[in-house]
Design goal:
This protein is an all-alpha fold. Helices cover 45% and strands 0% of the residues. Helix 11 packs across helix 12.
Length: 233
């Protein structure tokens, strides 16, 4: 699954004091500024000063469609342990894993490139005319065989299997989220899988912050992150 949730520099939280046990709105704002804003931006839009140097780009917390797909339990796990550790725990289960598997042994480079073309076209349409995009793509048979079981028949990340996966399969129709990924990134994810691409190719991933935050602070920070996609509440 394509989707690098909460990507951030591993050094972002260095030297930050452990959060207080009962976080206040003010303390959560300070925690976010210290640990998250460098990558995710002051407004939570994934446009922090470090963002241009990261691939995938940091998660945009203002994307309500994207944020609604993640459970609090998963977000807490990623904040505490870091994204790579969470993905490694799921890697042992193959295609039903919580992490995008590798297809380099079953797909040719031309097939992988064609898949990248197709999902980029789906993202450009933003969910409009997705079926036409697929029908006109030579990659459709490959997609239906290897990808649809997780990402859905029309690329919405909404297959029956997807409902039990965290992180959920990428929604290729979510233009706002897909804009975070370069073409090279998409090809590498399909080729090598998510975990191997991070480990071998150095793609950005969320660092662990369990040493800086207690459980109350983690819970409060999740609520704070979700508030970016709920303006006015």
């Amino acid at each position: 699954m394509l989707l690098g949730l909460l990507a951030c520099l591993s050094t972002a939280g260095a030297g930050v004091a452990r959060a207080e046990t009962t976080p206040t709105a003010e303390s959560l704002q300070k925690t976010y500024a210290a640990l998250c804003a460098t990558c995710h931006g002051e407004k939570g839009d994934g446009k922090g000063p470090a963002a241009p140097g990261l691939m995938p780009r940091p998660t945009d917390f203002t994307n309500a469609r994207f944020m609604a797909r993640f459970t609090d339990a998963y977000l807490a796990d990623v904040i505490r342990s870091g994204k790579l550790a969470v993905l490694r725990r799921g890697d042992s289960t193959g295609l039903s894993s919580n992490s995008m598997p590798a297809f380099e042994d079953v797909l040719s480079s031309n097939e992988i490139t064609a898949l990248a073309d197709m999902v980029e076209s789906l993202a450009e349409r933003g969910g409009s005319g997705g079926e036409a995009v697929m029908l006109s793509s030579g990659a459709m048979p490959v997609y239906r065989r290897f990808c649809a079981s997780c990402h859905g028949m029309l690329g919405g990340g909404d297959s029956p299997l997807a409902s039990g996966l965290q992180p959920p399969p990428t929604d290729f129709n979510d233009r706002q989220d897909m804009s975070r990924f370069s073409r090279r990134y998409l090809i590498d994810m399909v080729t090598h899988g998510k975990t191997a691409s991070i480990e071998r190719l150095g793609y950005a991933t969320m660092a662990p912050f369990g040493a800086q935050l207690d459980e109350a602070a983690v819970k409060g920070l999740i609520a704070f992150l979700r508030s970016f996609s709920k303006p006015g509440q």
